[in-house]
Amino acid sequence: MTTTAQAGGSWVEGSDASGFGIENLPYGVFSRPGELPRVGVAIGAYVLDLAGLASAGLIDDRRWFASGSLNAFMVAGRAAWDACRARLTVLLADGADAELRERTRAHLVPLGEAELLRPFEVADYVDFYSSEHHATNVGRMFRPGGQALQPNWKRLPVAYHGRAGTVYPSGTPIVRPCGQRRPSEPGGEPTFGPSLRLDGEVEVGFVAGVPSAPGRGVPTGAFRDHVFGFVLVNDWSARDLQTWEAQPLGPFLAKSFATSISPWVVPVAALEAARTAPPRQDPEPMPYLRCDEPWGLDLTLELLINGQVASRPPFASMYWTSPQQLAHATVNGAPLRTGDLFASGTVSGPERGQRGCLLELSWNGEEPVVLPDGAKRLFLEDGDTVTIRATAPGTAGGTISLGEVTGTIHPAQHP
Amino acid sequence: MTTTAQAGGSWVEGSDASGFGIENLPYGVFSRPGELPRVGVAIGAYVLDLAGLASAGLIDDRRWFASGSLNAFMVAGRAAWDACRARLTVLLADGADAELRERTRAHLVPLGEAELLRPFEVADYVDFYSSEHHATNVGRMFRPGGQALQPNWKRLPVAYHGRAGTVYPSGTPIVRPCGQRRPSEPGGEPTFGPSLRLDGEVEVGFVAGVPSAPGRGVPTGAFRDHVFGFVLVNDWSARDLQTWEAQPLGPFLAKSFATSISPWVVPVAALEAARTAPPRQDPEPMPYLRCDEPWGLDLTLELLINGQVASRPPFASMYWTSPQQLAHATVNGAPLRTGDLFASGTVSGPERGQRGCLLELSWNGEEPVVLPDGAKRLFLEDGDTVTIRATAPGTAGGTISLGEVTGTIHPAQHP
């Protein structure tokens, strides 16, 4: 099917240069007024209705697509994913025969008529901490004079479990959380109220489709057999809650109020051309973390605040790769479930303009970030809209888009 | 209905003195060979088949009971829970009329014929750290010379999210996890292999039935409107993995391999007589953590290793109560979902014989615990069976049992 795509683009008008061309074909869930949610694929300015295609006998379907989530299709496995992608490529390619083309066209829904929903039901949600630049910056801020990276950091991909029940689709309003805020000085009294240091974090996540058996890990070489695709993630964070609550068991309320994900799940197969060598790992990882293939991903990310680019974090700079994260998370025998979401941790590069959150951009609230339009921010204000978007090289030499995840800060409700 | 129970016991033979008398009536899910799982209630040495009772028209049912989980009934809410409990009390009371009694008896299944399953589907799993004695012991072990309790500990109930997908029913074999084990000295190399410091933790959990709206917390006074009941929890822990991985984001693989819960969910209403004043809280908690009613619970817990009592942790000594934990976990606007499980953290009392895990009992592996039969343990060995059981005062002056949660350690599987 890659051959088909390389031979040309798609007959869908404007799709080739849209980032949602035939090289991409990400899956999502959409609804139209008065209709039940169903699975679709983005192509140009349209959603291709897979439930409709299946009803018309144009694609194979085993009750995968007339569903409000991708989970049924995600559990079907790599052979089903590959076959569906190959078939969609045939239907959408420039070379498709005229009758097939017209029958397919009948199931294109303009994006403007579709509401994009959360694409899958999240089982467990794990958040890593895999950017060396991010972890180093945080270490320098919070442990001045100490080692920037803790001794375990280059030995294993540090992670924690987050709250699956508050993973929301892009566009969900983000209500500023209340909680106990750190004392202004050591030994002082905490205060209660709306977070005064609200932040977002640029992350990339992958979602498991095929479960794994309890007691058996998922080796790095089996990544493609279990993982369905990638989404963009905004790991909203209340820094004043976090620094107060997180000892000794890690972040809790500072993160659990909301995590946003992008509507389109980009298949692993669409990211083949984005794969690149990750940074050299020294010391050499333990055997269970070694990976024969390069699994860095050359994604170009952007963090926007009110439409202004605040930074451009380079995902290829991530120290730990996705297969290493998955191998680590399962090496203790914990099984995967369909819908398990694994986020990368904040993506930050070595330059100031590559930092993936306001905590780093404003250096813990000390130096305002100046946006291109002159606006300044230490942390997020009510009304601010935060958007993360990303592109990657496509398999046929074009560019594919991972779409965007966005959210607007609403004032605190409590008490 | 309490009046009915106080007037006497149940006609079910032997139930009054069993801990599973008419004052208790905990819910679970069971199956018999060749039959689908369904909801039942423990009474004496029987499970009362609620799906059967409903089919016979003896209790109200809205597709709550012919199910492999309690979730459908849990979401029905307090009025439904109270009505069901009242009706079961009528059916099972000594004074029940003869015809009703015989029609009910037809749905008693001997426990020996029933396999008890995981009682509910876990949505998110949160683990607290609410025993002052436990937190103090851990602080003394790992921060000698420092403050035993960290500054946030008496201000908020510290907690983290655990892995919902590895919450297993009692009796599930516990395979010793592999992972990176802490270096033997600071700056040394970690090693990979089976955990050498495997532990269990005596905990008590509560499970949410009725969801809450995003953005609105669950005040302490609304606890009964959302929480369905209590279970026993063993929070299995690999200490050598934990001390290495947990900085700065908390425990991950050291806990995520397995958490076991007891099969019977004891309704909140059954624990009315167990409610007691919790320890005095100083400093006074913030308003959102204040509670008008006493919510300490006088549960008598036992930790057994291979049938030998290793300790008797007193749950009434917990510093933070269940309604405070729930109010805290939702004060940031995170909504509750049906099946959200909140565990207390290790329960430890002030005496050595009241410590709820081997980490404390052996003082970080330095002083062997000597069991009544002379066996010694620093941590768990392959083949060890760990059981947690508990009783509480019943509403009619008797004793109710929370049953038990048990698990046997199997050797590591991984290379």
TrEMBL record, chains A, B:
EC number: 3.7.1.2
Family annotation (InterPro entries): Fumarylacetoacetase, Fumarylacetoacetase-like_C, Fumarylacetoacetase_C_sf, Fumarylacetoacetase_N, Fumarylacetoacetase_N_sf
Spans annotated as Disordered: 171-193
The protein's required cofactors: Mg(2+); Ca(2+)
Protein name, UniProt field: fumarylacetoacetase
Signal peptide region: none
Keyword Metal-binding: yes
Keywords: Calcium, Hydrolase, Magnesium, Metal-binding, Phenylalanine catabolism, Tyrosine catabolism
Record NCBIfam families: fum_ac_acetase
Broad enzyme group: hydrolase
Domain Fumarylacetoacetase-like C-terminal: 126-398
GO molecular function (one): fumarylacetoacetase activity
Domain Fumarylacetoacetase N-terminal: 23-116
